[in-house]
Amino acid sequence: MSVLDNWDQWKNFLGDRLHQGEHQGIQQDTVSNLAFEIGDYLAKQVEPQNDQEKVLADLWSVASDEEKHSIASMMVKLVENNGTQ
Hints:
mainly alpha, 4 helices, YmfJ/YflH_sf, DUF3243, DUF3243 domain-containing protein, Uncharacterised_YmfJ
């Protein structure tokens, strides 16, 4: 099963990556930019696997770049308290 198949697993996966980056000293603006790049890649290359991802994909498809950066920042905030670490 892919980490993308389950919303809670996806949030935990992202939370783990976020915490790893923070421990390595990655700045918040860098995290936000990476989240934007990952969101853009996923929107273009990966088929949504659950209802939550479908909503995000739909929102991403109609958003301006500024709005996409906002969505990416909200995803970072959403997963800050997730993860297994």
